[in-house]
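Z., the sequence and structure:
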Amino acid sequence: MYKLGVVGKEISYSLSPQIYNEFAKQFDIKIDYQIYDIKDEPLAFVEDFFENGGFGLNITKPYKEIFTQKIIDGPESINCIYQKGSKLKSTDGIGLVNDLKSKKIDYTRMNILVYGLGGASKSILNTIQTSGNIFVANRTEQKTEELIKTNPVLQKYNDESLDLVISCAQNLDLNTIKHFEHLNLSQSSILYDINYANQTNTMLEDLAIIQKNQFFNGLGMLVEQAAECFKLWFDKKPAVEDVKYKLNERL
């Protein structure tokens, strides 16, 4: 039996055990996938996990960037550890891209705004490509400016028309909501909140700034990025659509 799990803080709600158990059934692989809700010291926990027979781990909030800074000093936030702890990667970006494709959203010619520049947004910005423009915005203006300096492809948003807005914000304060209310959107614009089962889903929907059927939460991305992790662990790519359907019923 393969020892797997997800490490984070205040993550008892996580759907990851159900997702990976569904994937494992597809290949008759026996797994033990647990939620590891820890208060601190994620690096020490992960080291101990693999020393004691661990096979693969997911990393989630608030520890993604800790692993980037402490272990590989790379541009993305880590969400997957594989090869028994020897390799690390982010699958968030490809997870979002695969979910957009599954929803028949052709983002490759769109003007895109990524709002919120922590965690998964780094992986998304390194993965998503368009012949249009990629704008970035954040609650903290300084963070926006610093990111643009390191990546000349990115632009500061200044009321340009948008086709796709990707919200990576974990929480929405009054200033953030006002920012969304003043975005230059059309009836065909799409709003994708990478969170799932989060108050941001309801708050963004209630703003009614886009058509109701043009709003998506991050459940599909969650399943798609998990499928990429499963492939890294077992070299097998699971089917995802039935799993998405089951989770949507659960929510």
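The domain at 2-90+220-250 is CATH 3.40.50.10860 (Rossmann fold). The chain has a mean pLDDT of 92.

Let me know what you think.
H.
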